[in-house]
From TrEMBL:
Organism: Oscillibacter valericigenes
The protein, known as: Suppressor of fused domain protein
InterPro entries: SUFU-like_domain, SUFU_N
UniProt-listed Pfam families: SUFU (PF05076)
Record-annotated Suppressor of fused-like domain positions: 43-202
SUPFAM superfamilies, A to Z: Suppressor of Fused, N-terminal domain
């Protein structure tokens, strides 16, 4: 995990903003029973809330808190589209996932979310729907997943994708879907939507051993 000083001044949520985010996450995704805290950082402070399986959703939901304290610079040609400059990320994992494990085979989703949270700062860029990030190699030796794409929030009530803050600004949420190298390559050569046409049977819940997608 990369932690370093990429901003002249740290970007942090105010107490009121944090309270609104926590309430939004609990309302739309569920109550977190565990928060993986970040104890040292010099740019943004990224915690990962872990929401266990519950009656509505039989899977874990991981949500970042802290990425959206930094406002990304959206290119002028996209600004009229109303894309959020402040975002948080989420990922869903199966009920058998072990949130207590520190082994890389289990813990890579948490580290991936933290890395992605800093990606716009590290690379002086922005992230939005359909953006993909390659890892170069699989995230762990028990999976073919080696990169990811950002999609809209999956399997959540209307209103879940946007958290309005007291000053009138808002924070958007995106779903992180890990991909294989083959899927990433197809997405890059074609488009996100064309890739998704072949992945209708791939669940938004991330199964580490899921098979690669076959493209005709």
């Amino acid at each position: 995990m990369i932690i370093g000083k990429y901003l002249e001044n740290p970007a942090l949520y105010s107490p009121d903003e944090l309270e609104r985010l926590d309430k939004h996450i609990e309302k739309y995704f569920g109550k977190a029973t565990t928060v993986v805290h970040e104890f040292f950082s010099e740019d943004i402070h990224v915690d990962v809330s872990i929401i266990p399986p519950h009656e509505e959703h039989n899977y874990y939901t991981l949500v970042t808190t802290g990425m959206g304290a930094f406002s990304m610079k959206i290119p002028s040609e996209y600004q009229e589209d109303g894309l959020p400059s402040r975002i948080e990320l989420m990922m869903c994992l199966p009920p058998e996932w072990n949130p207590e494990s520190k082994e890389s085979q289990e813990n890579w989703p948490v580290e991936l979310l933290r890395y992605l949270a800093r990606f716009p700062i590290i690379e002086s860029t922005w992230l939005g729907y359909g953006h993909s990030i390659q890892n170069g190699t699989p995230y762990a030796d028990n999976t073919l997943l080696a990169g990811c794409v950002l999609l809209g929030v999956q399997d959540a009530p209307e209103g879940a994708a946007v958290c309005k803050l007291s000053d009138g600004s808002w924070v958007g949420f995106y779903q992180v879907i890990p991909l294989t190298e083959n899927e990433l390559e197809y997405k890059i050569q074609h488009s996100t939507d064309e890739m998704l046409e072949y992945m209708e049977d791939v669940d938004h819940v991330v199964y580490f051993q899921r098979p690669d997608t076959k493209f005709e």
